[in-house]
Structure formats: structure tokens, C-alpha cells
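BUG: 3D viewer hangs when loading the predicted structure for this chain

Environment: internal workstation, default settings.
Expected: structure renders.
Actual: progress bar stalls at 90%.

Input used:
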Amino acid sequence: MLYFKMKKFLSILFLLALTNTSIANEDFNAWVKNFIVYAKNQGISNSTLDASFKNVKFLENIIKSDRKQPEFIEKTDIYISKRVNPIKVITAKKIIKDNIDILNKIEKKFKVPKEYIVALWGVETVFGVHKGKVDIISALATLSFDKRRSEYFRNELLVLLKLIDKKVVKLENLKGSWAGAHGNFQFMPTSIMNYAIDYNKDGKIDLYYSLEDSFASAANYLKTIGWDKNPWGIKVKVTKKIPTQYISYDARELKKELNINQWEMLGIEFPDNLNINKKTKGKLIYPDGDDSLAYIVFKNYERLLHWNRSLRFAICIGVFSDLVKS
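C-alpha cells produced before the viewer hung:
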């Protein structure tokens, strides 16, 4: 008897799931029709809209991915260890050696050290191995339909359609991450629009296959948002209780900036081999919410936050680049 009751209960759950999925798909299809009208009014051509939305689908798993991003739920040491290891450091150094001419030219032009470029590549797509297989139109449409960050993703989708219309990107190449990011460095559509360049002068911007365009576009991104010659940051030890008004816990709300001398007076202990002017200003962050792990970070760290607004992501790139340099 218990078996049949359980079977009936599971059947009901299954039917409810099917019903909810059906309703979500119907609502999504209605949203797509309304968005197409909106996009037409924004100047997107019928041919681009027809081709782009021909096979669009509601991707339920993407909503789940958006709710459990590792940048915000994993401890920093775990987050870094999953993305930076001795093999990846060796690989990064070999990549620099194998591509030294182009990387040196890009570094000279954009004033962004090549180690940061390769570190970003390694973290974003494991040096191009995992660029994503999700249909970006469906991903952005799904996230635009979802209520959590609808306005942001709707704008990204509209920008992508404009890029397709202008033939900056090809629709058939648009595979990427669950969040709608594309290519070796996982550029969102607005990043493609603002920072991507045809570095090799072949008449197209190729962030998927061309390492020249990919490396240069990443460097152009960082340079454009204000990259400077200082380091990204440094791991420190906290020897006294620091007033909360000096501590940053959230990438969206970094707190007060002090120079190194001032931080030392408050109880921050720097490594003995510190090679930076003590008048340089930085901010104190606790990525895991307490002083068990603390960093003083400088302007370039904040530039990395433009790329991905996560304290842990920016630390990971900085740590990776330092290991590649050493």
C-alpha cells in the first residue's frame, strides 16, 4: 500500500512539474513576441530578428545557474584552488613563451602585463578549452524573461542584436556561457561593443578563434577602464581589531582608502618583501567576511571588478598572474 501511495505522490509531483514548465514556456513565448516588437522599434532589422529567434528556447537550468554562482557561495581559498593549480601555472607560462611576440606587442601598446591577460584567459575558459556551448540568444532571452536582473540582460540582448545587424558578430558563432558571455575571454555583448577590436586587421572581430583579436580586446578592455602600473593587491595579516568603516565585504561597496603607512598604524601587517611605495593608497577587503583572510587592494583590483563584480574573482586573477610572473 505504501508503495502505491508513494508512486501516486511522485506521479502528482511529475505532473505539477510538467504543468509549471508548460506555463513558463507559454509565458516565455509571449515575452519573446513582445520583445521582438520592442527590438523592431529600436531599429533591429526583420532579417536579424527572424534568424535570431527562430530556435529560441526557455532554458530553465540557466535560472538555476544564476542563483548559485560560485563567486558568491564558495570560500576564497576553495574558489581559487578550483581555478589555479600548478598545471595551469605551467600551462600559462608555456602559452606566454609560445606567443611571446604577439603578447609583447599587445603589452607595449596597451600597457597591460601579459600575465594578467593569460590569467584571465585561464580562469574564464581554461585557455579556450571551455568557451561554452549554450545558445547565447536563448540564454539572454531566458535571463531577460526572469525577474531577477531582467533590465540588465534585456539590454545585453538588444546590444547583441545590434552587433548581429551590423555584422560585427555572426549568429552562427554565438555559443557561450549560461550568462550569455562569448569567446576566449567571455565578453558580454556590451563588452564586445565597447572594447573588442580587430587587432589582426582581417576585417572582422573574432573573439572565438583569433588569439590576436582576443588578447588585444582583453588588453583594450583593461586599458580603457584605467589600468595602471601598480600591482593589483597583496595578502596581509590583521593584528588588531579594525573599525568596520575601513573594511570592505562587498564588491559593490568598497570602503575607505588609506596609504600603506596608515594601514600599518591601524594594525595591518604587510609581507617583509613588500616592493611598493608606502604612500600608495589601497582598500582593505575581507572576501570571506572575517579577518581570517584579508587583502589590501589597489586600483587595478577595482579594474578587475569591472570584469566580474566578485571579490573572489578579482583575487583569483591577481593571484594567478603573480604565480605566472614568478
